[in-house]
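yo

u said u wanted the structure for the complex thing, so here. seqs first:
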Amino acid sequence: MLPMRDGQAAATAIQRGDYRAPAWWIDTVDLAFDLDPAKTRVLNKMRLRRNPDVAPQALRLDGEELNLSRVLVNGAGTSFKMDGDQLVLENLPEGDAPFDLEIFTTCAPLKNTQLSGLYVSQGTFFTQCEAQGFRRITYFLDRPDVMASYSVVLRADKALYPVLLSNGNLVDHGDLDAGRHFAKWVDPHKKPSYLFALVAGKLVAREQRITSRAGNPHLLQVYVRPGDLGKTEHAMHSLMASIAWDEARFGLTLDLERFMIVATSDFNMGAMENKGLNVFNTKYVLASPATATDVDYANIESVVGHEYFHNWTGNRITCRDWFQLSLKEGLTVFRDQEFSMDMAGSASARAVKRIEDVRVLRTAQFPEDAGPMAHPVRPDHYVEINNFYTVTIYEKGAEVVRMMHTLVGRDGFALGMKLYFERHDGHAVTCDDFAQAIADANPDSELTSRLEPFKRWYAQAGTPRVHATGHYDAVTRSYTLTLTQSCAATPGQPVKEPFVIPVELGLLTQDGHALPLQFDGEDTPGATSRTVVLSESSQTLRFVNVDSAPVPSLLRGFSAPVVLDIDYSDADLLTLLAHDSDAFNRWEAGQRLLLRCAIKNIANTTDPISVTGAFEHKFLSEPVLQALRNVLRDPALDASYKELLLTLPSETYIAEQLEVVNPQRVHGVREHMRAQLALALQTDWQWAFEQHQDSGSYQPDAISAGRRALSGLALSMLCLAAQRSGDSVWPGKALQRFKDAGNMTDRMGALSALVGSGHDLAAPALARFYALFKDEPLVLDKWFALQAGAPDRNGHVLPLVKQLMQHPDFSLKNPNRARSVIFSYCSANPGAFHRSDAAGYVFWSDRVIELDAINPQVAARLARALDRWQKLAEPWRTAAHEAIGRIATRSDLSNDVREVVTRALASSAP
Ligand code: TRP
Ligand code: ZN
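structre next:
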């Protein structure tokens, strides 16, 4: 058993309010590694000095799973003691003069299955230091506000590890005795320990030389395993585009001669922004038309951008402490979202990206904010920081930055960023510092006049609700709109102060024309879309010169991360769906109509549903179907936009709207609606499929990808309709398309149409897919995920998932593979997971426990699959509670998993 889990002394929470500046500074670090998978030797020579601003105290260095063999101060032996995991030095030189501290340790990379610290993946050494992995490499002040200059010597067997990389510039390299060699790297920039990285192994690189706008030359490299070089072109293009974008949009240039990306197939998350040496999950680097889908291509562009943008927002200016994590993550997600939008080009492609981002926010972050793990964008306490790399920190954090952008305007935001770098470059700062810089650069803005209340977005958890009621007065030809906000209690925060909520809005006539907006007191009508700022609990807006009762279009572009409650009639929603000039709200009107239909039929439990039987119940009304048909046939709309509009809200999103959730009923009603949509629009789907075929070479651009997305949706609808009508023409066509497909998007689309409709042709197609791609790990992940995520037929998925875990290609130790089977089932397939016999939950608890012994970070993410157990109807609720309890009673849990299950059990009634 691991020592850190001894006696399970309940790990204590770290409080934001306890922050103290470090008592010591580390100015320089010279590291020397003798790399050996079984036992790597690390010599760490630091130059330290006392922080004159802090009362003198002992030096406490963090360490974890290290073997310590020597400690020298200024070259001489010294006394030290251990306090838990910390190395404590009490007899250090007096005074302010710097001194040398040398620490010699060893660690065991091969045994490191947590993938934090130094580990081996397929014979190559990698490091992952964020958030607290550096302490698993050497003793250190492992906190982001200690920034040092690093030089690194790597020594290793030359045949086994021909490539030796670390941060910064290569200053020396050469051969050593006994077939070994060395490389010396010096990083010209100071950095916190979490940005340290090394990589050593048999790798090859795609290289690109570029010249920045400022005229400086740079070398870009993308390192992969030898067979994968052909799949690096898109990543390299994405990197070049990211560099150009940050220069053009924010004036931020690359500050390194060399910028490297290295891909590994064993990685806990997506990618990591180590200074000058980004380490990526292969999933976000490798792509070829034959192996990667359009979604993969888009994700690679966005993750490459994200990590690159961290070079300024995260690395040049970093976080003072981990409570400020959203300072770098929220801002960098905002930047990568804007990058993807600017790359997509057209206004409608931008709207598509916005809708996709909002969908993630609402299906993942809103539930988090309403559940036991709810926390503010700047949390107040945590037990295990790894549990706080959440959709709240990332996605909601990005929304907070986006609202600032809205309140100060695009140019004002650019000024704010400029001031932020002038003030804080090279420092470790806080979320407050960021907001202050944006505000100070825009003294007359809506943000600056309300900065303190605005900052509640950082402090208060929970999703605010905005309730809107409108009233038209024909006599005065005026329309009043009352906006009221509220926010439910979250753990530890019973009462909330009002938020500052930018609401972009417009008014439409009943026949869909945009009205120029004239507020009471204004002389003339203004623009048709305007932003008002809601900062009180309730505010009333009065519009004048309105000829008839209008339809309000509120929260355009999703201008704030809130739930909007408004009592639309079906006719209002049909007007918005057909005519709103705001593409986001047009989509939203469609989603509201579909959601309304789902909720009504879920509530009506006397009405039995049969997923496979004949249609006795027409859930979707004829006007709604006609409106959707009109969208599908509209020549003015992009295919990708149509695909989003015609996709039903997810089961997770529907479930969030309900007080009490019967997951089987949610699944059944949604499937029934899907089948009805498939049948009612059959000829339209056929048209859509045929009209959106592309021949010619594969291009991952937004327009081509949109056409493939829509034809893919059409094909799955046609297979679904065929399943109901018993005809086999479309399954046959799907199989043919699967075989002939010229790219992975079309191939995967056809395969999933067959698997999704449960047709007999799915089995041979899956077998053929496996045979084609058995040597492509990322494609095998898709093969596993598709099966574990398939619609359930009489409970077939769970036995299948267990069988997949016995497959020779399955490995629990590889996070991507574990996610493709276990997470695809437990977290992404509610209809199959929430079995009434509780077997899905038992399976889940076993896997959490099993994974925890291997990789606590990944286990703790899986442990969150039942966060919303309180909302479940019986018998699921009791069964889920028991399954969580089964995990919680274990005495050998990691802090990661313990924190998650403890919070889940502590959550009170819904
Ligand atoms: N900072 C990284 C990013 O957002 C993510 C990250 C944090 C990470 N901790 C990690 C990646 C641990 C891998 C492992 O880009
Ligand atoms: Zn990030």
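The first helix runs from residue 233 to 250. Residues 306, 310, 329, 332 surround zinc ion (ligand 2) (CB under 6 Å).
cya
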